[in-house]
Specification:
Blueprint: E1 2-11, H1 17-32, E2 37-42, E3 48-55, E4 65-68, E5 74-80, H2 84-92, E6 99-104, E7 109-115
Antiparallel strand pairs: 1-3, 1-4, 2-3, 2-6, 5-7, 6-7
Amino acid sequence: MIFEGISKTFSTEEDKQYKTIGAFWDELSAKYGRENLRGLGYNWTDNTIEYVIGLKEGVIEGANCSVRLPDEGWSVVKGKTEQLGQMYNDIYLEGCLKYEIETFNDKGECEIRYCR
């Protein structure tokens, strides 16, 4: 599977990524609609994450990144967007991730697909 989209690097210090990646989502959602997007987190360091937002179908305008992802080995968790931090705390209890793909809707629901 190939994930294409607009890539940025975000700080993970003091969980800043939730606010800054959220603003990135808001910016692109205004143009494309939240339910048409998906976000990919990968390439973590001690204090950063690479994050890419792309369309669920097609290629987003201004795409600057293409990431090859595994076709198998994904787990899925669904919940409320307001509980995203706790969802990730639970996921990380089992270890670090290689990739995460997030989707959100305007009803406050989210889905996290992740691969270790």
